[in-house]
Amino acid sequence: MFFCTSCWYSLLLFFAVLAIIKLFVRLTLGVCKSNTCLLGKTVLITGGNSGLGFQTALALAGRGARIIIADKDDATESMKTIAKETNNENLVYKHVDLSSLSSIRRFAKEINEEETRLDILINNAGASGLRNEFTEDGLNLNM
After folding, report:
1. Of the candidates 96, 99, 97, which has an alpha carbon nearest to the alpha carbon of residue 141?
2. Which residues cross the membrane (predicted)?
3. Does a structural domain hold residue 68?
């Protein structure tokens, strides 16, 4: 015999573990492959000016959604990039500082008054590496 029996078992075990790892990666680390049309849908993304929020806005704008980017930083350049890459001009920027309750209340009032519908809300905004700092409202920035 070319291989001993224990070698066959080792080889079989190796390929079984490899198949399990491949299945795990495919089920947990996959990329969203949905191409659902979002025409007529309104999406609000906090922190949509950069990073994961920007990529989410880009993907959803590519499916035809109306995107509202809510961020404390100006999103003009991000909106130009999204419009250029997706041919979707239906983009809105709203300023909101999520560390200020008055800014949040003003933003919520604006959205309620100006928008007839909100179909998808993505709470993406966040910060890291903050010290034990407090907002003007006395809230800790780290939650």
Report:
1. 99
2. none
3. yes
